[in-house]
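Reminder to self: C-alpha cells first, then the designed residues, so the page reads top to bottom the way the pipeline ran.
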C-alpha cells in the first residue's frame, strides 16, 4: 500500500505538470514540491499530510468527467417543488428540466464525456425564487473539500 502511494507520487512528479500547477492545485507550497521533485528530499520521508494531498490530486486527475459530475449530483437534494434545469454553455436555449435527482442522473448517463464540462445547472424553487442557484461540474473540487457553502447550496440548507 505504501509502495503504491510512493509510485503514484513518483508518477505525478514525472508528469508534464509544472511545480507551480501542482502547488496551486494541491495547496502545498512550491518550495516543498520542488524539494521532492528535485530529489532534495525523499518521497519516503514525506509527511502523511503532504502525501495524502498528492495522492488525492493524482486520483482527481484520473477521474472521468462523468465521475466528477456525479460527485456533485450525488450531493444534490431537491425538496418538493424544486426543479433542476441544465443546458450546455454553447446551447443555452436547449434546456432540459428534471423534477428529481434520479431523473437528472438518468439524463446525464447518456452524454458524451466531453459534454459534461460545458453543462450549466440551475436549481429553482417553486416557493422562493431567491433560493435559486447555479452549479457546474467544476464544483466537484469544492464537494470533495467539503466546502460548507457549496454543500449548503446543494443540500438546500443555506
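Designed residues (158 positions):
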Amino acid at each position: 500500500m505504501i509502495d503504491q502511494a510512493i509510485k503514484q507520487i513518483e508518477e505525478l512528479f514525472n508528469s508534464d505538470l509544472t511545480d507551480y500547477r501542482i502547488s496551486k492545485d494541491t495547496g502545498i507550497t512550491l518550495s516543498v514540491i520542488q524539494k521532492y521533485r528535485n530529489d532534495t528530499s525523499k518521497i519516503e520521508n514525506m509527511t502523511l499530510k503532504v502525501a495524502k494531498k498528492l495522492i488525492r490530486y493524482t486520483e482527481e486527475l484520473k477521474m472521468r468527467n462523468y465521475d466528477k459530475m456525479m460527485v456533485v449530483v450525488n450531493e444534490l437534494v431537491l425538496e418538493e417543488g424544486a426543479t433542476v434545469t441544465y443546458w450546455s454553455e454553447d446551447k443555452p436555449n436547449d434546456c432540459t428540466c428534471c423534477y428529481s435527482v434520479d431523473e437528472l442522473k438518468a439524463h446525464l448517463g447518456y452524454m458524451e464525456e466531453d459534454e459534461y464540462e460545458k453543462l450549466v445547472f440551475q436549481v429553482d424553487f417553486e416557493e422562493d425564487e431567491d433560493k435559486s442557484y447555479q452549479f457546474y461540474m467544476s464544483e466537484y473540487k469544492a464537494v470533495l473539500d467539503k466546502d460548507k457553502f457549496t454543500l449548503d447550496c446543494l443540500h438546500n440548507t443555506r
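The chain is about 45% helix and 15% strand.
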